[in-house]
Design goal:
alpha/beta, about 130 residues, Rossmann fold, 7 helices
Length: about 130
Protein backbone atom coordinates (compact mmCIF):
# COMPACT_ATOMS: atom_id res chain seq x y z
CA UNK A 1 0.00 0.00 0.00
CA UNK A 2 1.26 3.44 -0.95
CA UNK A 3 0.93 7.03 0.23
CA UNK A 4 1.47 9.83 -2.28
CA UNK A 5 3.48 12.84 -1.21
CA UNK A 6 2.19 16.23 -2.33
CA UNK A 7 4.96 16.67 -4.90
CA UNK A 8 3.95 13.45 -6.67
CA UNK A 9 0.40 14.72 -7.16
CA UNK A 10 1.59 18.12 -8.35
CA UNK A 11 3.95 16.53 -10.89
CA UNK A 12 1.12 14.39 -12.27
CA UNK A 13 -1.05 17.50 -12.61
CA UNK A 14 1.83 19.23 -14.40
CA UNK A 15 1.80 16.52 -17.04
CA UNK A 16 4.25 13.79 -15.99
CA UNK A 17 2.52 11.02 -17.94
CA UNK A 18 5.02 8.28 -16.98
CA UNK A 19 4.39 9.00 -13.31
CA UNK A 20 0.62 9.14 -13.89
CA UNK A 21 0.69 5.74 -15.61
CA UNK A 22 2.75 4.22 -12.82
CA UNK A 23 0.38 5.55 -10.15
CA UNK A 24 -2.68 4.51 -12.18
CA UNK A 25 -1.54 0.89 -12.03
CA UNK A 26 -2.12 0.91 -8.25
CA UNK A 27 -5.68 0.13 -7.17
CA UNK A 28 -7.69 2.60 -5.08
CA UNK A 29 -7.69 0.32 -2.05
CA UNK A 30 -3.86 0.49 -2.05
CA UNK A 31 -3.49 4.22 -2.73
CA UNK A 32 -3.63 6.90 -0.05
CA UNK A 33 -2.90 10.54 0.59
CA UNK A 34 -2.71 12.06 4.04
CA UNK A 35 -5.02 14.74 5.36
CA UNK A 36 -1.90 16.97 5.53
CA UNK A 37 -1.36 16.53 1.77
CA UNK A 38 -5.01 17.36 1.20
CA UNK A 39 -4.56 20.57 3.22
CA UNK A 40 -1.50 21.49 1.13
CA UNK A 41 -3.42 20.87 -2.09
CA UNK A 42 -6.38 23.00 -1.00
CA UNK A 43 -4.02 25.75 0.18
CA UNK A 44 -2.44 25.82 -3.26
CA UNK A 45 -5.82 25.72 -4.99
CA UNK A 46 -7.17 28.71 -3.10
CA UNK A 47 -3.98 30.68 -3.78
CA UNK A 48 -4.09 29.77 -7.47
CA UNK A 49 -5.31 31.93 -10.32
CA UNK A 50 -7.29 28.84 -11.44
CA UNK A 51 -9.02 27.96 -8.18
CA UNK A 52 -12.06 26.23 -9.68
CA UNK A 53 -9.89 24.10 -12.01
CA UNK A 54 -7.62 23.11 -9.11
CA UNK A 55 -10.59 22.25 -6.89
CA UNK A 56 -11.87 20.01 -9.69
CA UNK A 57 -8.50 18.24 -9.81
CA UNK A 58 -8.64 17.71 -6.04
CA UNK A 59 -12.17 16.31 -6.26
CA UNK A 60 -11.09 13.87 -8.98
CA UNK A 61 -8.12 12.85 -6.83
CA UNK A 62 -10.44 12.17 -3.88
CA UNK A 63 -12.36 9.72 -6.06
CA UNK A 64 -9.13 7.82 -6.80
CA UNK A 65 -7.50 7.58 -3.35
CA UNK A 66 -8.29 7.00 0.30
CA UNK A 67 -7.41 9.47 3.05
CA UNK A 68 -5.00 8.44 5.81
CA UNK A 69 -5.38 10.50 8.96
CA UNK A 70 -3.66 10.97 12.29
CA UNK A 71 -3.99 8.18 14.84
CA UNK A 72 -2.49 8.04 18.34
CA UNK A 73 0.38 5.94 16.93
CA UNK A 74 1.06 8.52 14.24
CA UNK A 75 1.07 11.28 16.85
CA UNK A 76 3.47 9.32 19.06
CA UNK A 77 5.81 8.67 16.11
CA UNK A 78 5.66 12.37 15.22
CA UNK A 79 6.63 13.42 18.73
CA UNK A 80 9.48 10.92 19.01
CA UNK A 81 10.92 11.70 15.57
CA UNK A 82 10.54 15.46 16.03
CA UNK A 83 12.45 15.25 19.30
CA UNK A 84 15.17 13.01 17.84
CA UNK A 85 15.66 15.22 14.78
CA UNK A 86 15.67 18.44 16.80
CA UNK A 87 18.30 17.07 19.20
CA UNK A 88 20.39 15.97 16.23
CA UNK A 89 19.94 19.44 14.67
CA UNK A 90 18.47 17.91 11.52
CA UNK A 91 16.05 20.40 9.95
CA UNK A 92 12.76 19.10 8.60
CA UNK A 93 9.47 20.73 7.73
CA UNK A 94 6.85 19.71 10.28
CA UNK A 95 4.33 19.06 7.50
CA UNK A 96 6.71 16.50 5.95
CA UNK A 97 7.15 14.84 9.32
CA UNK A 98 3.37 14.74 9.78
CA UNK A 99 2.95 13.08 6.36
CA UNK A 100 5.70 10.60 7.23
CA UNK A 101 4.16 9.88 10.65
CA UNK A 102 0.74 9.09 9.18
CA UNK A 103 2.29 6.86 6.49
CA UNK A 104 4.46 5.06 9.07
CA UNK A 105 1.57 4.44 11.47
CA UNK A 106 -0.60 3.04 8.67
CA UNK A 107 2.22 0.86 7.31
CA UNK A 108 2.29 2.67 3.96
CA UNK A 109 5.22 3.19 1.63
CA UNK A 110 5.54 6.90 0.96
CA UNK A 111 6.08 7.81 -2.69
CA UNK A 112 7.92 11.11 -3.07
CA UNK A 113 10.25 13.06 -5.30
CA UNK A 114 12.14 14.56 -2.34
CA UNK A 115 14.55 11.99 -0.92
CA UNK A 116 16.23 14.59 1.30
CA UNK A 117 12.97 15.38 3.09
CA UNK A 118 12.51 11.81 4.31
CA UNK A 119 15.97 10.22 4.40
CA UNK A 120 16.47 11.01 8.10
CA UNK A 121 13.14 9.51 9.18
CA UNK A 122 12.61 5.85 10.07
CA UNK A 123 10.16 5.32 7.22
CA UNK A 124 9.67 3.13 4.16
CA UNK A 125 9.69 5.43 1.15
CA UNK A 126 10.47 5.32 -2.54
CA UNK A 127 11.60 8.11 -4.84
CA UNK A 128 9.69 7.94 -8.15
Amino acid sequence: MYCLDTNIIIDIWRGDSALKNRISSIGKKDLFITSITLCELFKGAFLSANTSKDISLINALLDAVSIADFTPNACRFFGAEFSRLKRAKIPLAESDLMIASIAKAKGLILITRDKKDFSNINLDFEVW
